[in-house]
Amino acid sequence: MHGLLSIDMSYNKLEGPIPSNKAFQNASIEAFQGNKGLCGNVPGLQPCNFWSNKRTSKRSHKMLFLIIFLPLCGVFFGCLGVFFFLQKRKDPKAEQSDQEDDESFLISSSFGRIMHDEIIKATDGFDASYCIGKGGYGSVYKTSLPSGSVVAVKKLHSFHDSERTGQEEYMNEIRASTEIRHLNIVKLYGVFLSAIYSFLVYEYLNGVNLATILKNDKEAKELDWSKRVNIIKGVANALFYMHHNCSPPIVHGDITSKNILLDSEYEAHVTDIGTAKLLNNDSSHWTAPSGTHNHLAPELSYTTKVSEKCDVYSFGLVVLEVVKGKHPGEIFFSMSSPSSQMPLLEDILDQRLPTPSPQVQEELMTIVKVATTCLHSNPQFRPTMHMISEILEA
Q1: Which residues form the Protein kinase domain (predicted)?
Q2: 369 has pLDDT over 70
């Protein structure tokens, strides 16, 4: 790839010598961080012969280690185990601590007990003065950690031990969510679950959700047609990434205008990744978050299986909400019928904005057609986010 201008290979667990082409050789050390075994002629990386010599040295000392040190280590750890066993019998608090560990667990490669304790302390045990919002799943708190970073913490209303049964699939999905790095997705740093406190930690984005802006006439007028088209494309890109570029694929489960944050440049950022799956992992019942019933796919009235096509349906509703400036209402019900005809564009457009130019009208008509296909009552006839992204970017 001699035409390659720049690269970023960070946090991919790669090893071995980096290529010798110009893009790799001119890259900064930040482009390679988070990889344990990369080597090459880049400032900050070890020379490749370093790793070769190191492996050779390790092999030559392996036999000596096995013969002399391993038996000594066995004796040492045996004595250490007896010591801790006796200490545990003397200290009843040790048993209580073990029980607490059994009742809580963390999900994240970088999220740990230290950050958990810092959050509890920084929010004074989730004092109301730190609360910046409430939703169907929980309350959101803004706090600054000792490291100086600002995070948004969503404290869940409840998470019962009985809900953990058979949730390995969902834990894998949430764990994958913590690895997401995408422009249009709010970063999920980690998850902590326990009988006392259960919360998710996100990057703090200094913005307002889309629903709030659309409800305010003054702010909605600032959201012109080009910005609204860009928001729709940003949400589509986020869902395309989650459905097709993540392993396992990630289903959001609660795509609404409330869960789309806009930054100062009106760039869309999907938030609340992982929350819906985390709380609705019991296939015997489905409980929709408060205030989002009118965004749920119709199949959820007779099945609890949440799929990517549920996100597609909710995306279609959000698109119409962005174009119309509010929930599509009666127009939505007519469009969701398989035999329905496309409504006139002027009946859908937000009347608070001036009439768009012919070129923008053409783009909006394409967007509305895509939204209509997303609302099909049969999920099998809805497009995938891959198909939607291709149409919107054409």
Answers
A1: 126-394
A2: yes
